[in-house]
Protein backbone atom coordinates (compact mmCIF):
# COMPACT_ATOMS: atom_id res chain seq x y z
CA UNK A 1 0.00 0.00 0.00
CA UNK A 2 1.53 3.26 -1.07
CA UNK A 3 -0.51 5.65 1.07
CA UNK A 4 -2.89 5.51 4.01
CA UNK A 5 -6.47 4.89 2.96
CA UNK A 6 -9.71 5.34 4.82
CA UNK A 7 -12.32 2.59 4.50
CA UNK A 8 -14.54 4.98 2.53
CA UNK A 9 -11.79 5.60 -0.05
CA UNK A 10 -12.33 2.02 -1.33
CA UNK A 11 -16.07 2.47 -1.90
CA UNK A 12 -17.94 1.34 -3.82
CA UNK A 13 -16.12 -1.98 -3.77
CA UNK A 14 -15.71 -4.04 -6.89
CA UNK A 15 -18.11 -7.01 -6.63
CA UNK A 16 -15.27 -9.56 -6.56
CA UNK A 17 -13.56 -7.66 -3.76
CA UNK A 18 -16.79 -7.51 -1.75
CA UNK A 19 -17.47 -11.23 -2.11
CA UNK A 20 -13.94 -12.24 -1.13
CA UNK A 21 -13.96 -9.96 1.93
CA UNK A 22 -17.41 -11.22 2.92
CA UNK A 23 -16.22 -14.82 2.65
CA UNK A 24 -13.52 -14.07 5.21
CA UNK A 25 -15.74 -12.17 7.66
CA UNK A 26 -16.36 -15.18 9.91
CA UNK A 27 -13.22 -17.26 9.49
CA UNK A 28 -9.95 -17.69 7.69
CA UNK A 29 -10.21 -19.67 4.49
CA UNK A 30 -8.12 -20.98 1.63
CA UNK A 31 -8.78 -20.01 -1.98
CA UNK A 32 -10.94 -23.01 -2.88
CA UNK A 33 -13.05 -22.43 0.25
CA UNK A 34 -13.59 -18.80 -0.78
CA UNK A 35 -14.60 -19.88 -4.30
CA UNK A 36 -17.10 -22.40 -2.94
CA UNK A 37 -18.61 -19.99 -0.41
CA UNK A 38 -19.16 -17.32 -3.07
CA UNK A 39 -20.72 -19.88 -5.40
CA UNK A 40 -23.02 -21.19 -2.63
CA UNK A 41 -23.94 -17.76 -1.27
CA UNK A 42 -24.89 -16.45 -4.71
CA UNK A 43 -26.83 -19.55 -5.70
CA UNK A 44 -24.33 -20.21 -8.49
CA UNK A 45 -24.78 -16.74 -10.03
CA UNK A 46 -21.18 -15.69 -9.32
CA UNK A 47 -18.28 -18.03 -9.92
CA UNK A 48 -14.79 -16.77 -9.14
CA UNK A 49 -12.51 -18.74 -11.44
CA UNK A 50 -8.99 -19.33 -10.07
CA UNK A 51 -7.31 -16.60 -12.13
CA UNK A 52 -9.94 -14.06 -11.07
CA UNK A 53 -9.87 -15.16 -7.44
CA UNK A 54 -6.11 -15.14 -7.02
CA UNK A 55 -5.76 -11.86 -8.91
CA UNK A 56 -8.35 -10.38 -6.55
CA UNK A 57 -6.59 -11.80 -3.49
CA UNK A 58 -3.27 -10.36 -4.71
CA UNK A 59 -4.80 -6.87 -5.11
CA UNK A 60 -6.54 -7.08 -1.73
CA UNK A 61 -3.24 -8.01 -0.10
CA UNK A 62 -1.46 -5.13 -1.88
CA UNK A 63 -4.10 -2.76 -0.48
CA UNK A 64 -3.65 -4.23 3.05
CA UNK A 65 -7.22 -5.57 3.17
CA UNK A 66 -6.16 -9.23 3.41
CA UNK A 67 -3.18 -11.06 4.74
CA UNK A 68 -1.95 -14.61 4.61
CA UNK A 69 -2.48 -16.48 7.85
CA UNK A 70 0.21 -18.47 9.61
CA UNK A 71 -2.39 -20.56 11.45
CA UNK A 72 -3.17 -23.95 9.95
CA UNK A 73 -5.73 -26.64 10.64
CA UNK A 74 -4.43 -29.95 11.97
CA UNK A 75 -2.32 -31.86 9.42
CA UNK A 76 -4.98 -34.54 8.78
CA UNK A 77 -7.50 -31.82 7.80
CA UNK A 78 -5.11 -29.75 5.71
CA UNK A 79 -3.21 -29.78 2.46
CA UNK A 80 0.26 -28.25 2.85
CA UNK A 81 -0.12 -26.47 -0.52
CA UNK A 82 -3.07 -24.40 0.68
CA UNK A 83 -2.66 -20.81 1.71
CA UNK A 84 -5.12 -19.40 4.20
CA UNK A 85 -6.26 -15.78 4.20
CA UNK A 86 -7.82 -13.46 6.74
CA UNK A 87 -9.09 -9.92 6.87
CA UNK A 88 -6.81 -7.22 8.20
CA UNK A 89 -8.33 -4.60 10.52
CA UNK A 90 -8.55 -2.26 7.50
CA UNK A 91 -10.21 -5.02 5.46
CA UNK A 92 -12.80 -5.54 8.18
CA UNK A 93 -13.47 -1.77 8.30
CA UNK A 94 -13.85 -1.62 4.51
CA UNK A 95 -16.27 -4.56 4.54
CA UNK A 96 -18.31 -2.85 7.27
CA UNK A 97 -18.37 0.46 5.37
CA UNK A 98 -19.44 -1.24 2.13
CA UNK A 99 -22.14 -3.24 3.94
CA UNK A 100 -23.54 -0.02 5.42
CA UNK A 101 -23.42 1.66 1.99
CA UNK A 102 -25.38 -1.22 0.46
CA UNK A 103 -27.93 -1.22 3.31
CA UNK A 104 -28.49 2.51 2.76
CA UNK A 105 -28.97 1.89 -0.96
CA UNK A 106 -31.56 -0.82 -0.28
CA UNK A 107 -33.44 1.59 2.03
CA UNK A 108 -33.51 4.18 -0.77
CA UNK A 109 -34.76 1.61 -3.28
CA UNK A 110 -37.51 0.46 -0.92
CA UNK A 111 -38.52 4.07 -0.27
CA UNK A 112 -38.96 4.95 -3.92
CA UNK A 113 -42.56 5.65 -4.77
CA UNK A 114 -44.12 2.96 -6.89
CA UNK A 115 -41.95 0.16 -5.52
CA UNK A 116 -43.41 -2.03 -2.82
CA UNK A 117 -41.12 -4.00 -0.57
CA UNK A 118 -41.77 -7.24 -2.48
CA UNK A 119 -41.06 -5.55 -5.84
CA UNK A 120 -37.83 -4.05 -4.49
CA UNK A 121 -36.69 -7.48 -3.31
CA UNK A 122 -37.34 -9.24 -6.60
UniProtKB/TrEMBL annotation:
Pfam families: PadR (PF03551)
SUPFAM superfamilies associated with the record: Winged helix' DNA-binding domain (SSF46785)
Highest rank taxon of the organism: Bacteria
Positions of the Transcription regulator PadR N-terminal domain: 20-96
Descriptive protein name: Helix-turn-helix transcriptional regulator
Organism whose genome encodes this protein: Paludibaculum fermentans
Amino acid sequence: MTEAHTPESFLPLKPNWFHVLLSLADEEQHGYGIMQEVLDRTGGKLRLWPATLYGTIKRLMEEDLLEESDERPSAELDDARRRYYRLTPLGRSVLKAESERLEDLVRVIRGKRGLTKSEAES
